[in-house]
Design goal:
The complex is a heterodimer. Chain A starts with 14 loop residues before the first strand and ends with a helix. In chain A, strand 1 and strand 2 form a beta hairpin. Helix content of chain A is 29%, strand content 23%. An eight-stranded mixed beta sheet of chain A has the order 2-1-4-10-7-6-5-11, with no helix packed on it. In chain A, strands 3-9-8 form a three-stranded mixed beta sheet, covered by helices on one side. By secondary structure, chain A is α+β, with helices and mostly antiparallel strands. Chain B is an alpha+beta fold. In chain B, helix 9 crosses helix 13, helix 11 packs across helix 12 and helix 14 packs antiparallel against helix 16. The longest helix of chain B has 29 residues. The radius of gyration of chain B is 36 Å and the shape is globular. The chains are: A alpha+beta, B alpha+beta. At the A-B interface, helix 1, strand 10, helix 4, helix 6 and helix 8 of A face helix 9, helix 11, helix 12, helix 18 and strand 22 of B. Chain B: It catalyses: RNA(n) + a ribonucleoside 5'-triphosphate = RNA(n+1) + diphosphate. Chain B: Keywords: DNA-directed RNA polymerase, Metal-binding, Nucleotidyltransferase, Nucleus, Transcription, Transferase, Zinc, Zinc-finger. Chain B: One of its GO terms (cellular component) is DNA-directed RNA polymerase complex.
């Protein structure tokens, strides 16, 4: 691929799938495409110059599965494929109310890594923390092929994982606290008489946080759940989906026309 | 789409239509309609114009106003109610009041609409034509939840002919019964008896990125005006010293753009680079410096960036927030406010700002990648509905906060005897909404508290000078630009306004190009919900933006919904085609536009309101989809315009989508690449310019002049014109429809309410009284009624009631010793009001009103002597007749008297006339018919026009009008002068020749004076002439002596105050230069404000009665005459501690 010759910029992203639950699984799928039954039909209607090459049966399954997509925004595509690099995820944390993910990836300290600087400046940081907000997406499916059949599994949320330099913020905070201690003005240290008055708080509406501020506050106050990172569960996952979808046949409850009508 | 597909669909939807008998189409069913027999062959190329009347039948000329108002009362009101649904009490946490529903003019219980006072009654009685606003509320009383339906919270002024109006869908009979004109377009309001129009306002589109560059200052900026229901703000991404910054009013200084992106969570610089520049290395080079800027500031994390921004925010808040919180708040809600982030994910906002930055980078790279502010596609029109919606929401919020305050006041009291019913307080404030709406519409001052916006001059009084002036006002668009600025850009004719805005109709002078008019076949969109469209986009293959990673973002086409990136598509063309097919099949609203912008790699979808769009015939495979087989049922009334939309034959395109299309002007121009076909090319003009016959043969400014003059022409106003009592009304006595019509004239019913007469014109010189465009009028024509008009003027009097139970009264007439009424009271009847039909002369009284002397103190005995006469006296150079007298009761129970005075006027010297080609002239002489030239048939002209009017004006259309008119007269037919078409000159000449006339319209005339034939053939024939409202009688003015101003004792100014004629500064210079000093003295002092003063020659100051108050002596006091204004100046100077001293000397030494 010509784009990949330019090693600085990664042209395409590889999506990984993780399943939340007792055991966190990881699935590697070659290509994830959003496929919609109806979309296919519309396509076939119009494109005369684009002949149908092959028809693939579709299967729906895994509606009880808890599938979340992680997009590793800054991971280079080349690095991504190195097998040794792949599994080690040392910790995963999740806040379910705010659907906030945090994942620790151990740093590759062998190359291009300044251990001294990390020790000196950043409290000996060893992991790269990735953070992302799961965004709800309706109508998104993950799919895999098995025996020339496609299996679609609904996706709960998609999260773009981005580096989160917790250690810089931590150091900053510490430094600021120290500074404020050092630069403590005499006024702040002098003993003061504190008078208290009881004020009726009848205008509580003014102090209500709204919108994003509220969401941040909720997220800050929420306790996070530590999750285990499980590997090599793809096989099992696939089988369960295949099994499930073979048990029942999905029937359309409305016609093509009806579907189009309720779209808008 | 193939033909068979159309047929198939037609059977689906077309045939099911069952249309009732339609009066408007009656004419179409007659054996001969508009020169066409039912059995005539139907020609697509010629007959497709029939779509236009079909369009106007559905849409009408003022449909944009009605649509906008209907949308407001039906949909927008509900949204406003929902957004301000709850009223909570600060005192009692249990209490709540919730608005459930809102309706205008209809109770939930009854199926019929409320009775409204009919509009004409409102006009006559100075009332507001309005309907009650009902809300359904749910609230708590003690422990109970109570539902209450149909609570009236105020009254809403109703737009005439909107769907809340009693004239909605009314047939001619009903209209006649209500004293309404069936041709009146509606679209205006009646507030306190006056008809008010909310003019269409033009603005730059909201929530769209506009990129501009100033090459001199090396500045590139992308700006977006965010507008939500709550707030309005503007965000800039701007270059400064080659670096890019974000600028916003509530952030103290510019923030480096990379810091902003980091604050939005784009931490990695790789990702920043990918979002802004993609893979383009030249963009990367331009942008790279910004990354350095951020790293110099040592900002690495989102938190650091947020704190950096938070420290620079300068908004005032009641609530104390930490710097971090300030930063979050600034990014989430303040910047680019129309994309408010409600949760933790800032991605949408980050992308929007990255896109703004990208546009800036693109414009730096290629200076041509900037937007044009004047491009019509970047404009939005704000209509009555939107403006009232803004106002209503403001008033409703005020209403709610007042309501809440009064609820809190009661709930605060700890021990109430009984449970509090909130409903009791609701009526207290109901007047606020009613009076707020009325005041805004009647004054035109739109003040919106929440946007801190004050706008004046939003509404105007509907001009009823003529039918066309009222119509012209309804299609007028005023721009927000300052009129005094000398910029050419916004005033210039834009190529993109083709078919959307009239190319001819704009005023001259300061508002030139800023005030525009809609073209004939346009529609202005209303807001449409975004959500379903977004959903649909995802279904037909758009990849959700939240799933796209930064590196692949710019590889494909971005899909933008109302300016916001919602996803990308790999196959832009296919997506756009699919989307259009869905629209054509009626699955989505026909007013949603989609177009591709290849420069920006974008597919833009617009659903917002205020876009101008127009219908066009769809062309597929090089063939027009509208064919003869569709036009036949259209002309028979089996199909209506909307069926053409549903069948996918016709679609609406807005300006942006037009740019994405290849539109053939005529059917013969269709090429395989064509996508659309014009319905009719003459629709580039508006309603007013449509009156001009053969405008395509005129020099273009002439058409513009006619557009201004057409609105001043006196004619018929409406079918109910004799029932109206307006402040001032001009009516033509014998209006005629023009011999040379246009299709537009028929469509807007100008032929039913015309303003002008067909005059026989001879183009020649006659006497010397025809220089400078003066016209020679035929006295006999005037005797027969040519140019005769009447004026009707209204006087209103209110009989006031006073607090002490006295009131104004109307006295009877006073009689002399013979029992005859005195001269002043001659026109009065026994009731003290003028009698209908009586003549009133200047100085006579027509309302004999008296007011009580004592209106404040309690009433005491002896009533007779306590009144003072304050009669209404008629003062004018000419007598009037009393036309109508009306006595009624207005809204506030006071007696209201209106008297209408009529004057009949025949043309006189100096009255102004004009043809329909911007050729105006005043009457220079009125000549006896005997002296006028005549032709072989003995016809003498009504008007003689000097031929010098033609060469420089180049109004060839006027000449062709004459020929067509003459042919029509001889042929007994009405000819057409429709723009880009009309009756062909060759055919007209043929008729002339067949009737024994010269092909060019020239006749041999004989002099009326000598009886000899004139030496040249004279261009002779009928031209439609308009009488303009400027008449000598209203302007003539002279005075010998008269009133003087109190302060300066100089004569008053202006005709209305019987003022003097000013000898001004320049005239003074002339008189000085001439050396006529005594004339100067007479003009400036003796005839003006001569005043005798006593000047003390010793101290130089003024005294009085021969006594100097300063010197306390009479010794040196000299009498002299100076202008009173000079004396005033000296005294004013004295009051400022400056003593002007006069030193007197004899000029003439003896």
């Amino acid at each position: 691929m010509s784009e990949n010759d330019n090693k600085l910029f990664v042209a395409e992203e590889e999506e990984d799938i993780a399943v939340e639950g007792e055991a966190v699984q990881e699935v590697e799928i070659e290509d994830i495409r959003m496929i919609d039954e109806e979309e296919d039909e519309i396509d076939s209607d119009n494109d005369d110059d684009d002949p149908v090459v092959k028809e693939i049966p579709l299967n729906f399954g895994g509606k009880d599965e808890n599938l979340h997509i992680f997009q590793y925004i800054n991971k280079l595509r080349l690095v991504n494929h190195k097998p040794s690099e792949h599994p080690p995820i040392s910790a995963a944390r999740y806040k379910s109310k705010s659907s906030l993910w945090e994942i620790d990836v151990p740093l590759d300290s062998k190359a291009f890594f300044n251990e001294d600087k990390a020790k000196e400046n950043w409290n000996g940081v060893e992991v790269q923390t990735l953070k992302g907000v799961g965004v709800n997406n309706i109508c998104q499916y993950a799919a895999f092929m098995e025996d020339n059949q496609a299996y679609l599994v609904p996706v709960r949320t998609t999260a773009q994982l981005k580096p989160f330099f917790k250690y810089i913020d931590a150091v900053n905070l510490k430094r600021r606290q120290e500074e404020s201690k050092l630069n403590a003005t005499p006024a702040s240290q002098r003993a003061q008489v504190v008078t208290m008055s009881v004020k009726s708080v009848n205008d509580s509406s003014q102090n209500r946080l709204t919108g994003s501020l509220l969401a941040h506050k909720v997220a800050d106050e929420e306790t996070q759940v530590d999750l285990n990172w499980a590997e090599n569960t793809v096989r099992q996952f696939r089988e369960s989906v295949i099994k499930e979808s073979s048990e029942s046949i999905v029937k359309p409850i409305e016609s093509h026309e009806e579907y189009l009508n309720h779209l808008v | 789409m193939s033909k068979s597909a159309i047929k198939k669909r037609k059977t689906d939807s077309g045939v099911e239509h069952t249309h009732g008998k339609d009066e408007n189409f009656e004419a179409l069913l007659k054996p001969v309609f508009k020169g066409k027999k039912l059995t005539d062959e139907i020609n697509t190329a010629e007959d497709k114009w029939n779509l236009l009347p079909a369009f106007l039948k559905v849409k009408g000329l003022v449909k944009q106003h009605l649509d906008s108002f209907n949308y407001f009362v039906d949909d927008d009101l509900k949204k406003i109610i929902q957004a301000n649904q709850l009223i909570l009490s600060d005192v009692d946490p249990e209490f709540y009041l919730k608005y459930v529903d809102i309706r205008i003019g209809k109770k939930s219980s009854s199926s019929a609409r409320d009775y409204l006072t009919p509009p004409h009654e409102c006009r006559l009685r100075d009332m507001t034509y309005s309907a009650p606003i009902y809300v359904d509320i749910e609230y708590t009383r003690g422990r109970n939840i109570i539902m209450h339906k149909d609570v009236e919270i105020g009254r809403m002024p109703i737009m005439l002919r909107s769907n809340k109006c009693i004239l909605y869908d009314a047939d001619e009979k009903t209209m006649a019964k209500l004293n309404e004109c069936p041709l009146d377009p509606g679209g205006y309001f009646i507030v306190n008896g006056t008809e008010k129009v909310i003019l269409v306002q033009e603005q730059l589109s909201k929530n769209r990125i506009i990129v501009e560059a100033d090459p001199k200052k090396e500045i590139v900026q992308a700006s977006v005006t965010s507008s939500t229901h709550e707030r309005k703000s503007k965000t800039y991404v701007i270059t400064k010293n080659g670096k890019i910054y974000l600028k916003h009013n509530s952030i103290a200084e510019e923030i480096p753009i990379v810091v902003v992106l980091k604050a939005c969570g784009i931490i990695s610089e790789l990702e920043v680079m990918q979002l802004v520049c993609g893979n383009d290395s030249s963009y990367q080079d331009i942008f790279a410096v910004n990354l350095e800027e951020a790293s110099k500031l040592n900002i690495y994390t989102q938190q650091q960036a947020l704190e950096y921004i938070g420290a620079k925010v300068k908004t005032m808040r009641r609530q104390k927030l930490s710097t971090l919180q300030e930063g979050i708040e600034a990014i989430a809600t303040t910047v680019v406010a129309h994309l408010t982030v409600e949760a933790l994910d800032f991605r949408e906002k980050a992308l929007y700002m990255a896109m703004m930055t990208r546009r800036v980078v693109m414009a730096i790279h290629n200076p041509k990648m900037v937007d044009d502010r004047d491009y019509v596609g970047n404009k939005r029109l704000e209509l009555a509905g939107q403006l009232i919606s803004l106002l209503f929401e403001d008033l409703f919020k005020k209403f709610n906060s007042d309501f809440k305050a009064s609820i809190d006041k009661v709930l605060k009291k700890p021990n109430r005897a009984m449970e509090y019913d909130a409903l009791l307080s609701i009526n207290v404030h109901s007047n606020n909404i009613t009076s707020g709406l009325n005041r805004a519409i009647s004054t035109g001052n739109w003040s919106l508290k929440r946007f801190k916006m004050e706008r004046a001059g939003v509404t105007h009084v509907l001009s009823r000078l003529s039918y066309i002036s009222a119509l012209g006002m309804m299609t007028r668009i005023s721009s927000q630009f300052e009129k005094s600025r000398k910029v050419s850009g916004p005033r210039a004719l834009q190529p993109s306004q083709f078919g959307m805005l009239c190319t001819a109709d704009t005023p001259e002078g300061e508002a030139c190009g800023l005030v525009k008019n809609l073209a004939l076949m346009t529609h202005i969109t209303t807001d449409y919900d975004e959500e379903p469209i977004k959903k649909l986009c995802y279904v037909i293959g758009v990849e959700d933006i939240t799933m796209i990673d930064s590196s692949s973002l710019h590889l494909n086409y971005g899909v933008y919904l109302n300016g916001t990136l919602i996803g990308v598509t790999r196959f832009a063309n296919k997506f756009v085609t699919q989307f259009r097919n869905l629209r054509r099949s009626g699955k989505i609203s026909e007013f949603i536009s989609i177009h591709t912008n290849t420069h920006q790699k974008a597919v833009q979808i617009a659903t917002d309101g205020g876009r101008i769009c127009r219908p066009l015939i769809i062309v597929s495979d090089g063939k027009s989809r509208v064919t003869a087989e569709h036009l036949a049922p259209l002309m028979n009334g089996e199909l209506v315009f909307d069926d053409f939309l549903k069948l996918g034959l016709v679609e609406y395109l807005d300006v942006n989508e037009e740019n994405d299309s290849f539109i053939a002007l005529y059917e013969k121009d269709i090429s395989p690449a064509s996508t659309h076909l014009e319905i009719e090319p003459f629709t580039v003009l508006g309603a007013v310019a449509g009156l001009i016959p053969y405008p395509h043969h005129n020099q273009s400014p002439r058409n513009t002049y006619q557009c201004a003059m057409g609105k001043q022409a006196i004619g018929a106003i409406a079918y109910n014109q004799f029932k109206r009592i307006d402040t001032l009304l001009y009516l033509m006595i014998y209006p005629q429809q023009p011999m040379v019509k246009t299709k537009t004239i028929e469509l807007i019913d100008y032929d039913k309410l015309p303003a002008g007469q067909n005059a026989t014109v001879a183009v020649m010189s006659y006497s010397g009284y025809d220089i400078e465009d003066a016209l020679v009028l035929n006295k006999a024509s005037i005797d027969r009624g040519f140019g005769r008009c009447e004026t009707r003027r209204k006087t209103t009097t209110i009989l006031k009631r006073y607090p002490n139970h006295t009131q104004d009264i109307i006295g009877g007439m006073r009689v002399d010793e013979k029992g005859e009424p005195i001269w002043q009271h001659k026109s009065l009847g026994p009731d003290g009001l003028g009698e209908v039909g009586m003549k009133v002369e200047s100085g006579q009284i027509y309302i004999n009103k008296s007011i009580p002397l004592n209106s404040t103190e309690p009433f005491s005995g002896d009533a007779g002597s306590q009144y003072k006469e304050t009669p209404v006296i008629y003062r004018a150079p000419e007598a009037s007749h009393i036309d109508q007298v009306m006595m009624s009761v207005s809204d506030n129970d006071q007696a209201l008297i209106k008297v209408l005075l009529r004057q009949n006027r025949r043309p006189e010297l100096g009255d102004k006339f004009s043809s329909r080609h911007g050729q105006k002239g005043v009457c220079g002489i009125i000549v006896k018919q005997e002296d006028l030239p005549f032709n072989d048939q003995g016809i003498s002209p009504d008007i003689i026009m000097n031929p010098h009017g033609f060469p420089s004006r180049m109004t060839v259309g006027k000449m062709i009008e004459l020929i067509s008119g003459k042919a029509g007269v001889l042929n007994g037919s009405l000819e057409y002068g429709t723009c880009f078409g009309g009756s062909k000159l060759e055919d007209m000449s043929k008729i002339l020749v067949d009737q024994g006339f010269n092909y060019s319209g020239k006749d041999m005339l004989y002099s009326g004076i000598t009886g000899e034939c004139l030496q040249a053939y004279i261009f002779f024939g009928p031209i439609y002439y308009q009488k303009l409202k400027h008449m000598v009688l209203d302007k003539m003015h002279a005075r010998a002596r008269g009133p003087r101003a109190v302060l300066t004792r100089q004569p008053t100014e202006g005709r209305s105050r019987d003022g003097g004629l000013r000898l001004g500064e320049m005239e003074r210079d002339c008189v000085i230069a001439y050396g006529a000093s005594q004339l100067l003295l007479e003009r400036l002092m003796i005839s003006s404000d001569a005043f005798e003063v006593d000047v003390c020659n010793s101290c130089g100051l003024m005294g009085y009665s021969g006594w100097c108050t300063t010197c306390k002596s009479a010794e040196n006091v000299i009498k002299m005459t100076i202008p009173y204004a000079a004396k005033l100046l000296f005294q004013e100077l004295l009051s400022m501690n400056i003593a002007p001293r006069l030193k007197l000397d004899d000029i003439f030494q003896e």
